[in-house]
Each structure stands twice: as structure tokens, then as C-alpha cells.
DNA sequence: TCCCTAACGCAACGATCGCTGCAGAACTGG
DNA sequence: CCAGTTCTGCAGCGATCGTTGCGTTAGGGA
């Protein structure tokens, strides 16, 4: 989701970006999503509000950016030797990630601002799932796997209060593979 | 989700409530969720902003109220004689409901404001599912049915751009019942 | 090392938000 | 029909939001 390659990836720009992203995540965990405004984020990040407005423009774009960063590169595709093993390990990792209230708050907020926000949360997951399945010969369709694995997992995380534990998530693999 | 029984269910109060709910749904379809503020809603509803603030207090509570109304009483539990038939018919209805962009916008917005909002969207669905399964002898667990039926359905609706058609939703019943 | 561009801080502005008195209108029950 | 209660409209307020122009600072390339 990084827009091309930033002209200046390192230095102050990177620090500001990290500080703002961190501020958004922190504020989402400790207060209501409605209290999340640009000036508040800027104050928490130790940055001038103008900077936030100029770099991200809208709260929606900022949240999409945070979601994309938060849900990228944090989970590595496992390699256990078997398709079932890979899926089980990966599902446990994803479930553990979703069990974090911070992660959940970011996801809820990103969904609330439009279509792009929701997609930013799962784009990397779909890519990982495709990689696992392709290595396994593409036996189950990626679409079907996403429906039966990611579907229940994210549904529970968002709509029901109960957290989805890793064991239960692993059990979903049996539904898919039989 | 209706707080007890409103002291005055009929008359002007009901008209105002309906107008405000309708305004929220309309505004969510035609503009960004960030543009959804109390004064804007009041203006569209032809009501004074003070009224909206006093009756609902927060945009979050208003959205939760709208979601609860929108996702209650719109789908009737079918009775085809067989558990499979009931589930297939019901799933097709739910999928059709979710295919409406208006419905989707309300759901996204409700999710964005916190935990209660998400639960308000599916509380009635869970009750309906429980009713269907209980009549069928409670063969599959309600939890499992919700995971395998509602999970993929809502996941597709929220995260992926593709709408979930009724036929595909019916196919999920086969995964659950075998 | 020096220059040049991009990014940031600062200050001010108009617009909007959310809230709070008070007065009038509408609905319900007798 | 009338009285009591509840709900709504109105006007105004302080606070905050989002934007803009300009000067300054930090990073990267020759």
C-alpha cells in the first residue's frame, strides 16, 4: 500500500510517519473511535496538525495507511512440509494476531471509513493464503479457502465479542481439507 | 436493541425517529462516512440538531440504533419442512439483503464505532439461526453454523469487493450439513 | 563540503461542532 | 375537553476542526 517509493524513505519523514501511525494505534486502544481526530493524533505523535493534514489529507486515508502497515509483514508464511501443517500454523498465527484488542480496534476503524479500509486489512492475508495453496498444488481454490478459513475467523473477531483462539482456528482447516 | 419500550411509541416521536434513521441511511449511501455528523443528519431529516443530540447523544449510539432497526424484522424465518431447505432459503435471503450497498454502508459505519455496533448487526441473525436449528432438533451447533454460514457471508460483504450472491450463499449450507 | 528540494512548524482564519438555557408545541390519560 | 408530562424548536455560547500562506529546517545529490 506504500504509494510507489517515497522520495525520502529515511530520516525525519520516516520518523514522523512512524510516530503518527503509533499515535493512531494507541489512541484507538484507549479511547472511543469517535475521539480520533487529526489534531488529537498530531498532538499524541508530537507533530504539528498541519503535517498530518498535508501528508494524509483525510482521516480515512490515514486509517487505511495504518491498517495496511499493521497487516503487512507481521506474519511469515510457514513451511512445515505439508499443506495441512502450513495452513494450521498460519491460521494459529492469524488468530493470535486477531486476538489483540489493538489489532481489532485498528481493523474496526479502517472498516468504518469505506471500502478501501476493509480491503487493506486482508490484502496481505489473501496473498499469504495464495502462496501457501499454490505451493501445495492449488488443491483447494483460494476463494473457497478464504471463505472457510478467513471468513469465520474475521467474523468472530468483528461481530461477536468472543475472541477466536488459535486451536479453534486450526480446526477450521479440517473443515476445508476434510 | 430498542431501550425498553419508548414512553411514547406513536406520534411525532416516532416520525422524528423514522426521519432521522432514514436520513442516516441515505447519507451513508451518497457520501463518505466521515461526512456523517449530527448537524448534517438533522438537516437532512428536517429536524433540529438539538433533537438528535438529546435523543441519541452520540453518533455511535445513533448508528447502533439505526443498525439494530435495519437488521431486525426484515427477514422472516422460513418453514420449508426440512432443515436444509430452511437454511438454504434463509441464507439466500440474508445474502440478498447484504447485496444492497445501503445495507453494507450502514453495517460498515456501525462496526466503525465500537463493539456494540457490530453486535447490533448480527444479533437478530443469530436469533433466527438458533430458531431454525432448534426446530430441526439442534443437530449442528449454533456456534458452528454461525461460523460456517454467517462467517463467509459477512466476510465477503465487508472485506472483499465482490458481492455474495444468493446461490453461493446457499452452497455454504452443503459445507455445514455435508 | 555546499546547494537544492522537500518536508515541517507556526500563526491566523472562517466554519462547524456539540452543548445549554428557556419557551412553545404535541401527545397521553382522565 | 382539559391538565400533565414529554418532546421539540430556537438562539447563542465556547471549543474544536480543517485550511492556507509563509518562513524555517532537515536530507539527499554533485
Model description:
2 copies of one chain form a homodimer. Chain A is mainly α and 178 residues long. Chain A folds into 2 domains: 12-70, Arc Repressor Mutant, subunit A, CATH 1.10.10.60; 83-177, no CATH class. Helix content of chain A is 71%, strand content 0%. In chain A, helix 4 packs across helix 6 and helix 8 packs antiparallel against helix 9. Chain A starts with 11 loop residues before the first helix and ends with a helix. The radius of gyration of chain A is 18 Å and the shape is elongated. Chain A binds chain B through residues 32-34, 58-60, 108-109, 111-115, 118-119, 121-122, 146-148, 150-156, 158-161, 172, 175, and chain B through 32-34, 58-60, 108-109, 111-115, 118-119, 121-122, 146-148, 150-156, 158-161, 172, 175. Chain A binds a DNA duplex (30 and 30 nucleotides) through helix 1 and helix 3.
Amino acid at each position: 500500500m506504500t504509494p510507489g517509493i517515497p522520495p525520502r524513505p529515511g530520516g525525519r519523514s520516516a520518523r514522523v510517519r512512524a510516530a503518527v501511525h503509533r499515535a493512531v494505534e494507541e489512541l484507538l486502544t484507549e479511547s472511543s473511535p469517535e475521539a480520533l481526530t487529526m489534531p488529537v493524533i498530531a498532538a499524541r505523535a508530537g507533530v504539528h496538525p498541519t503535517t498530518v493534514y498535508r501528508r494524509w489529507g483525510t482521516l480515512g486515508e490515514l486509517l487505511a495507511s495504518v491498517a495496511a502497515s499493521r497487516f503487512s509483514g507481521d506474519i511469515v508464511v510457514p513451511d512445515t512440509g505439508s499443506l495441512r501443517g502450513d495452513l494450521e500454523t498460519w491460521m494459529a498465527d492469524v488468530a493470535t494476531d486477531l486476538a489483540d484488542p489493538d489489532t481489532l480496534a485498528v481493523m474496526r476503524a479502517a472498516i468504518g471509513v469505506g471500502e478501501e479500509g476493509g480491503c487493506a486489512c486482508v490484502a496481505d492475508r489473501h496473498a499469504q493464503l495464495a502462496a501457501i495453496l499454490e505451493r501445495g498444488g492449488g488443491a483447494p481454490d483460494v476463494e473457497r479457502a478464504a471463505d472457510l478459513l478467513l471468513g469465520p475467523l474475521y467474523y468472530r473477531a468483528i461481530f461477536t465479542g468472543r475472541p477466536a483462539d488459535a486451536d479453534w482456528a486450526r480446526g477450521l482447516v479440517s473443515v476445508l481439507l476434510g
